[in-house]
């Protein structure tokens, strides 16, 4: 098994290839450079990135590179699939909520005068696949954070899979290319958001993606009130939800990321209903009370012994 | 924010025993490396050869003893379980 660990996109990254061959080791060593290239295009925290330049040109038709085109297409697909609950047009809302710099640079308590800024209409974004251009409506600005990580995990896994069964963990957004060399599934733990050193469940995943959206880590105080990084596009403010964290299994990491975010924003009851209506998703939601809720297909992926732990879990409740 | 209070969704001494009975299965061979978080801005790349063993993964059981009264159950230290896995999904960090 080849393994590399590094930081990129503000997160801890891990890449694995189940092979002892030298070409696999060579491929794994390239993964940090792939992520650096993608981050240099997609990061809103880098003034020279393609995304930052695009955001400075809202209202104009702008030629874009291959990476930006692909990720924008994915973000619009996610917006369509989620009915607009997940949308790239949330940068102004994020900044108004205090998330105007990388999380590592964020003060625990921000005091800003800007009020909430509802997300713009993603359907007004004009992406031209022939000319490979995009026009973002004037006054609208984009953030690609979550979708970029999921997309990057999928891309890296696709490249690595040529050398053996591969897994890429992009800050908790995980992509898996196929069964391990011994034919077994990849064991992937689901962290307990109320107890970071502990796990809630063990998933057994052959291929696809696993992602978690939550407010247990990227949170701060904004004008004295608690805030977090997942914006409700209708209000332009951090989503008010009873869900602390939502973990979803999907055919790809980018789909898992989108679905986890939807389930989080919709809340425990509506989030599980949304997942249950879609055969391609399976999810586990942790409410702020400590209660866990599983979608109808979640048990298909859980190691049976860990299922008993979910059902008998003792987790602290916020108070 | 006040300190969290502990609640159990369901809890019995029998369930605790069931958790304790989970077998420590064979390890994943050589260590997969720690989950330690690197300091922001620090890049560390390591490529190691790791032998993957068979599944299912080992379970680390750190269960502590739990009192029998409801009040004691609510105030007790809850079991902490960490699975041996190749990756761990959590909100991005």
Secondary-structure map:
The complex is a heterodimer of chains A (about 325) and B (about 90).
Chain A: E1 2-8, E2 11-17, H1 22-42, H2 50-55, E3 61-63, H3 66-81, H4 91-96, E4 109-110, E5 126-128, E6 133-135, H5 145-160, E7 166-170, E8 173-176, E9 186-192, E10 195-205, E11 208-214, E12 219-222, E13 225-228, E14 231-232, E15 237-238, E16 243-250, H6 253-266, H7 268-276, E17 282-287, E18 292-294, H8 304-311, E19 314-317
Parallel strand pairs in A: 4-12
Antiparallel strand pairs in A: 1-2, 2-7, 3-6, 5-6, 7-8, 8-11, 9-10, 11-16, 12-13, 14-15, 16-17, 17-18
Helix pairs in contact in A: 1-5, 5-6, 6-7
Chain B: E1 5-8, H1 13-20, E2 48-49, E3 59-61, H2 70-75, E4 81-83, E5 87-89
Antiparallel strand pairs in B: 3-4
How would you briefly describe this protein structure?
The complex is a heterodimer of chains A (319) and B (93). With 319 residues, chain A is an alpha+beta fold.
Protein architecture, described:
The complex is a heterodimer of chains A (319) and B (93). With 319 residues, chain A is an alpha+beta fold. Chain A is built from eight helices and 19 strands. Chain B is built from two helices and five strands, in the order βαββαββ. Chain B has a two-stranded antiparallel ribbon with strand order 3-4. At the A-B interface, strand 1, strand 2, helix 1, strand 9 and strand 10 of A face strand 1, helix 1, strand 2, strand 4 and strand 5 of B. Strand 19 (314-317) of chain A pairs antiparallel with strand 1 of chain B, so a sheet runs across the interface.
